[in-house]
Amino acid sequence: MNHLNIVNFVCLQNFTIMKKCILLSVLLILLSVPLIMAQGPDVVIPVPAEVSVNKGTYRFRSQPEMCLVKVSENAMPSESYRLEIHRRKGVTITFSDSAGRDYALQTLNQMSSDGTIHELQCCEIYDYPRFPYRGLHVDVSRHFRSVDFLKKQIDAMAMFKMNRMHIHLTDAAGWRLQIDAYPRLTQFAAWRPEHTWKEWWAGDRHYAEEGSKGAYGGYYTKEEMRDLVSYARARHIEIIPEIEMPSHSEEVLAAYPELGCSGEAYRDSDFCVGNEEVFRFLENVLDEV
């Protein structure tokens, strides 16, 4: 083999290796890109009660073709729906009440990944709640949260078909709801010097005047709470307010010490059940709530 043939042989070998490297690189790139395939009902949370998967897929551009069919409440249980995805007909939703309709739309939204996937597996879904009470408990006494934060939680709850938000409005760490008959509950008992509950609990557990330097806390006005209740109701969620009694009431008894058995601030944690004024207080508070 002369020098020219040796050079050609080496070049040919290098070219072959380079082609293999290019092919390998292209393969690795393809494997790293997620394949957008038809989305099926297996992504739905919570898992629907009944699912049957059919052949074929339904493709659409921006919004699926949809047919909404309302039936009598005797025909289907409350909050239930039937979702059918057909290759040619598109989407048919059968429901008996607005909750069932909206839950079906949430299922469809999950299957389309919030509208980013435009090809759905043909299937039939029949769904209804396994439990009438599907709740979330939010403790805003120990850790105060804004109305906007609670609305975000309500949106997430609606996505997963939850229907009760239990708000822990009062506890030793702070009173969180405007009560006209007892203004000190929000002027004083809603505020504390420490930002975190653990710092406050490990300290002297005192409260602060609204607007004082470093005061942490807050409360919801009646208008804010009405707005939150309305926002939740539109998403089929009931707001359940909790007023703590007879114990875990240090914040009330610091603001109104006459409701404790000692009559002194920072001495009691329980309402004094032998004091008739305690029952007038609780009735007045619950009437406003």
Write up this protein.
Helix content is 34%, strand content 20%. The longest helix has 30 residues, at 3-32. The protein contains eight helices and twelve strands. With 289 residues, the chain is α/β, with parallel strands linked by helices.
- Protein structure class: alpha/beta
- Oligomeric status of the shown chains? single chain
Mean pLDDT: 90
Q: Strand order of the main beta sheet, please?
A: 1-5-3-4-2
> Which percent bin holds the helix content?
25-40%
Radius of gyration from CA coordinates: 31 Å
**Strand runs, count:** 12
* Helix and strand run: HEEEEHEEHEEEHEHEHEHH
Q: How large is the share of residues in beta strands?
A: 15-25%
Tell me about the largest β-sheet. Answer: 5 strands, mixed
DSSP helix count?
8
Low-pLDDT residue spans: 6-12, 29-36
Q: For the terminal residues, how far apart are their CA atoms?
A: 100 Å
At a glance:
With 289 residues, the protein is an alpha/beta fold.
Structural descriptors:
single chain, 12 strands, elongated, 34% helix, 8 helices, 5-stranded mixed beta sheet, 289 residues, alpha/beta, 3-stranded parallel beta sheet
Helix-strand blueprint:
Blueprint: H1 3-32, E1 50-59, E2 66-70, E3 81-86, E4 90-95, H2 98-111, E5 119-127, E6 135-139, H3 147-159, E7 164-168, E8 170-171, E9 174-175, H4 184-187, E10 191-192, H5 197-202, E11 216-217, H6 222-233, E12 238-242, H7 250-255, H8 276-288
Parallel strand pairs: 2-4, 6-7, 7-12
Antiparallel strand pairs: 1-5, 3-4, 3-5, 8-9, 10-11
Helix pairs in contact: 3-6
